[in-house]
Amino acid sequence: MWEVRLAKHLKADLGTDTFDLVQVPTPEPAAGEVLVRTDYLGLSVAYLEMLRADSRLPIPPWEVGQRIGGGAVGTVVRSNSAELAVGDLVRTMAGWCEYSTGPADQYPGLDPDLFPSPVHYLSQGPTAYYGMSEVAKAGAGDVVFVSGAAGGVGSLAGQIATCRGAAKVIGSAGSQAKIDYLVDELGFDAAFDYHDGPVLDHLRELAPEGITVFFDNVGGEQFDAAVEAAAPGARFALCGALATQIGDHEDRFPEPDLTAAAAKGIAVLPFSTYHTPEQVAAWTEHFSTWLSEDRFVFPHTIVEGGLSAAPQALVSLLKGSFKGNVSVRVAS
Known about the structure:
alpha/beta; Quinone Oxidoreductase, Chain A, domain 1; 2 domains; six-stranded parallel sheet; 10 helices; 14 strands; 26% helix; ER; MDR_fam; NAD(P)-bd_dom_sf; oxidoreductase activity, acting on the CH-CH group of donors, NAD or NADP as acceptor; oxidoreductase
């Protein structure tokens, strides 16, 4: 079988030479274990930090020579456990590999009939739901701004705000095609291209009453503009800072100037989502319900080409080439 390992820690722009595709023996399951075929890999912009030796994430970065990690869904192809049968759909954290093995309890079973496709289990919804519902507590009457709204988290966060009763949801993105996508397909009330003039001007035009919730995936200028355009007492859920994740360790995560935010009584709420069973269950329940009620769209791209396509897919994701969530089909 094949797996993808880290060839070198990232110090500049990400390229496919950061990864090695390595052939290794297919593992054999021991007593109580299962052999799982990886069907789909999920990709995330958070992987950018995991590729760095000086990662600022609250989990250890990947080491050179280590298999790239991350979530996936797969199928049990051999079982030495009464807990799982051949053919069962499971979640796996084994990472970028064609097959993996381990104790059955490390592979939570999934309902194959709950969603239209197994890739729905790879959405970044737990992060979006936790941040929008539990951190920002968006609800009836809120005016919500989502930065990086066409990405995997943002495209879900905006829809979650709408489902929770927000009065207006505004998104920022990097092209006219993505703006049209947010408004025409995902139901955002308005969207703008952050390249097209000062962000603050857009926010003042689209939300003259002031934004009350900001779900920030980007940081930088968009955070500063959101502070200026916020209503007193607004809640800011800080999910990421993609605009600043370049350069040296100190430059990638500059501390935001919170003086203006404090003066307006803005609650600045950085958060991390650890995909606990409770967080995943809460998202899965609401996601499946909203889909069945036709209140929600799952924005996603499936990259073909097998495991060897994963490195380039991640490079393309970080360049903004996709809309919504991105997964790689590993098994043909």
